[in-house]
Design goal:
Largest sheet: 12 strands, mixed
Order of helices and strands: EEEHHEEEHEEEEEEEHHEEEHEEE
CATH topology of the largest domain: Fumarylacetoacetate hydrolase, domain 2
Structural class: alpha+beta
Shape: globular
CATH class of the largest domain: Alpha Beta
Distance between the termini: 31 Å
Helix content: 10-25%
CATH superfamily of the largest domain: Fumarylacetoacetase-like, C-terminal domain
Number of domains: 2
Number of strands: 19
Radius of gyration: 18 Å
Number of helices: 6
Strand content: 25-35%
Length: about 300
């Protein structure tokens, strides 16, 4: 099932099921129920059965006539670095080397952006990069999960562009500042529930800049699997429903090119992962203009 957060015109967010090129407004006559996708995930199959039942006879809207929002607003947006050998190889000239353990950083949740909303190029930098990534959405509260059980806590999958301000990233002891600018965490276009993806370690990530294919790799080539990532994180912190784990990017980033091909105002970045879908957005030189509705500054 594809669960979407959407709105019509300037109306409030709604919860929908995406079927082909339409979204079913499953809670249209139940305003007392939560439209927060994360709130439905802990109930698992029971929630999906209820929503599927509600889709019978509910209003359907064309995807062209609605605005899609980030499917979740997580309490934590965690991202792993250096998780594809091909990416490590392309940035070896920057001094990055394989680590013996997983490398994690926070993207502060104020960076979460809608899947097709403009992305800000801050005035403080000209080294703006893209990173197409598979994102895992936690479905139920998880602590100290062992690898063999890790996939049972996954609620679904979406796409993340781990937008990176490289000079800020590399000048700080941690990656967090260079990864957390407003709008630099687009998620979407919706959440595909875990039962719909047989093997998340067999998906192909493709990233295009102005129509040019820059990244193409299988999630099978991750250094640390999704299960290993969940086990590592849950040994340290409680993962909550709706939390997002961005699982790393393959080769083809702007920083990996010689010379680097940084993004400039007007560039469009599209990230595709079948069977999830795609996100796509223009980069603009004006941080305030790029803020989406419902952002931290509203």
């Amino acid at each position: 099932m594809k669960l979407a957060s959407f709105s019509v015109a300037s109306g409030p967010p709604r919860l929908g099921i995406v079927i082909d090129d339409e979204v079913v407004d499953v809670l249209h006559d139940l305003p007392h129920l939560s439209v927060d996708i994360a709130a439905w995930l802990p109930a698992g199959d029971d929630a999906l059965r209820f929503l599927a039942m509600r889709s019978n006879g509910a209003p359907r809207l064309s995807l062209d006539g609605i605005k899609l929002h980030a499917p979740v607003r997580p309490s934590k947006l965690l991202a792993i670095g250096a998780n594809y050998q091909c990416h490590l190889d392309e940035v070896a000239h920057l001094g990055l080397k394989p680590a013996s353990r997983q490398i994690w950083f926070n993207k502060q949740i104020s960076c979460v952006n809608d899947p097709f909303a403009p992305i800000s190029i801050p005035d403080c930098s000209q080294e703006i990069d893209y990173e197409g990534e598979l994102a895992v959405v936690i479905g139920r509260r998880a602590r100290n999960v062992v690898m063999r059980d890790a996939m049972t806590v996954v609620g679904g999958y979406t796409i993340c562009n781990d937008v990176s301000v490289r000079d800020v990233q590399m000048s700080s002891p941690t990656h967090t500042l260079g990864k957390s600018f407003d709008t630099h965490g687009p998620l979407g276009p919706w959440l595909v529930t875990a039962d719909e993806i047989r093997d998340p370690q067999a998906l192909v990530i493709k990233t295009f800049v102005n129509g040019e294919l820059r990244q193409e790799a299988s999630t099978a080539t991750m250094i640390h699997s999704i299960a290993a990532q969940i086990a590592e994180l849950s040994a340290i912190m409680t993962l909550e429903p709706g939390d997002v784990i961005s699982t790393g990017t393959p080769a083809g980033t702007a920083a990996g090119m010689q010379p680097p091909r940084w993004l400039i105002s007007g560039d469009r970045v599209r990230i595709e992962i079948a069977p999830i879908g795609h996100i796509e957005a223009p980069f603009v030189q004006n941080s305030n203009a790029a803020l989406p509705a419902g952002s931290a500054r509203d």
